[in-house]
Amino acid sequence: MTNLATGAYSDPNQTPPLAQAIPLGIQHVLAMFASNVTPSIIVAGAAGLAFGGAEQVYLIQMAMLFAGIATLLQTVGIGPIGARLPIMQGTSFAFVGVLAGIAAVQGLGVALTACLIGGVIHFCLGAVIGRLRWLFPPLITGLVILAIGLYLIPVAIKYAAGGAASFQMEAESFGSLMHWTVALSVVIVALVLKFFTKGTTSSAAILIGLIVGYLIALAFGMVSFAPVAKASWITGITPFPYGFEFSLGAVIAVTLVSIVSAIETVGDTSATTKAGAGREATSEEIAGATYADGLGTAVAGVFGGLPNTSFSQNVGIVGMTGIMSRHVVTIGAIVLILCGLVPKIGAVIASMPLPVLGGGVIVMFGMVAAAGMNMLSEVEMNRRNMVIIAVSLAAGLGLNLVPTAVQYLPGVIKILATSAVAPTAIVAIFLNLVLPQET
Question: How many structural domains does the chain have?
C-alpha cells in the first residue's frame, strides 16, 4: 500500500474514500492476523486440547472476535474508554508464557478466570497509568519483553520440528526433514517478502509465508480437512466455557504482565500520534487506550478469549501510509469480528500443521526478543544496569528451565517462580528501586 498523501488524513476523525479505506482496513488485519491467533493455539496445546479439535477452533474464533471488539473499543470508544485513534488490538504474546503454564497445571478455567480479573485490574490502571510509568523505565519493560521472547523461542523450535506427543503428533517424526522443510519455507518466504517487497505484501509477509507453508504441507499430505468439513458456518459464543475457577497465584501472574502490557500500550499510543499526526498523545488518549485494553481483556476472558493489547506492527502501517483515520482501523475490526463468527475460518487455521506454525513463530517470537533488545538499547549499559539485567534474566529464565529447583514451593508460588516473565519483572523492579544510581 503506497503512502496516500502523508498528512492529508492526520486527523483521526477523517476518513479516506471507501475505495481506499476498505483495502487499508484489510491491510491492518493482514499485518496482525497470524500474531493474533497464534497465542490461542499455543495455550490450547499447553492445556492438552486436541490439535485441530472443536475446542481449539473455538479459542481461535474468540481470538479473532474479541480482537475486533477490543479494536472497536479503541477506535469508536464508549465515554472515557478508548483512545479514538487508529490502534489495532489483538491477542497479546506477553501473556503466553504465564497462561500456558497456568493452563498446563491448573486448566483453562483458572487461566481464563485470571484473564477476566486481570482485565478488570488492567482497566483500573487507566486512572493511574500516568503516575505508574516511573516504575517501568525502558530497563524494566525491555527486560520483560526480552524474557518473553526468549521463553517462547524454544516453543517455536518444538513446533517447527513437528511438535511432541502432547500435541497429537508422532514422536518418531519429531525433527524430520519434512517438518523442517515446511517450517523453513515459511521463514524464507516471510523474510524475502518483508525485505524485498513493499506495501501490503511486506506488511503481511508472515501471513503469506504461512499460506505458502500450508500449501507445501498439503502437498506432503500433512493436512486433514476433516475438522473443516465438520465445522459450521455460523455459531454463537459461550460464557465461561471452562467454568470460573479462582487462583490467587494465577491472578497475580496475569496482573503483573497486565501492568507491563499497559505500559506497552502507552508507548504504542504515543507512537501512533507521532507517526500519523506528528504530536504527543494526550493524557485522555493514553488513559482511554488503557481502559480499552483492560475492558477488551476482561470481556474476552468471559467467553474464552485471551488478553488483548495494542499491536505495534500496526503503528508502522500508520506511519507508512500516513493515514491517521481511526475509521480505517474500524473497518479492520469489523472484518475480524466477521471472521470470528465463522467457525469454518477457525477450523482452517486449526488445521495448520505444527511445522507451518513453527516457521511463523520462529520469526514472531524472535521479533519479540528483538523488540526487548531494542528497548534496552536506550539504556545506559553501566555496571548497575548490567547487574539488573543479568540477575533478572538469570532468575526468570533459569527457574523456568529448571523448574525442579523450586519443586517444594507451594503450587501458587511455584507457578509464579517458573513462569519466566513474573520473576524477571519482580527481580528487575526490586533491584531498580534499591540499587543506587551510578554517578
Answer: 1
Q: What is the pLDDT of residues 185-211, one digit of tens each?
A: 989 998 898 888 877 677 677 778 888
User: Residue 302's domain spans which residues?
Assistant: 18-434
Residue with cell 543479568: 390
Q: Please give the Cα distance from 64 to 365 (Å, whole number).
A: 20
Place of cell 479459542: 59
**pTM for the full predicted model:** 0.73
* Cell 479439535, located at residue: 53
First to last CA, the chain: 49
Q: 404: Cβ–Cβ under 8 A, 6 or more apart, which residues?
A: none
Q: State pLDDT tens for residues 303-357.
A: 989 999 888 767 766 766 667 888 888 998 998 898 888 888 777 777 778 888 7
Residue 413 lies in a domain: yes
**Cross-strand pairs, 91:** 308
Task: Show Cβ contacts of residue 333 under 8 Å, excluding neighbours closer than 6 positions.
Answer: 67, 68, 69, 71, 72, 75, 88, 89
Please provide the DSSP assignment of 281-329 as one string.
Answer: PPHHHHHHHHHHHHHHHHHHHHHTPPPEEE-HHHHHHHHHH-B--HHHH
Residue 10 lies inside a defined structural domain of this protein: no
Beta bridge partners of 89: 310
The rounded distance, in Å, linking the Cα atoms of 285 and 5 is 25
Q: What are phi and psi of 18, to 5 degrees?
A: -55, -30
Q: How many helices (H) and strands (E) does the chain have?
A: 19, 2
Residue with cell 503503528: 315
254 contacts 299 by C-beta, under 8 angstroms: no
User: pLDDT tens for residues 93-135?
Assistant: 778 878 888 888 888 999 999 999 999 999 998 888 877 777 7
Is 11 a domain residue? Answer: no
* 8 domain residue, yes or no: no
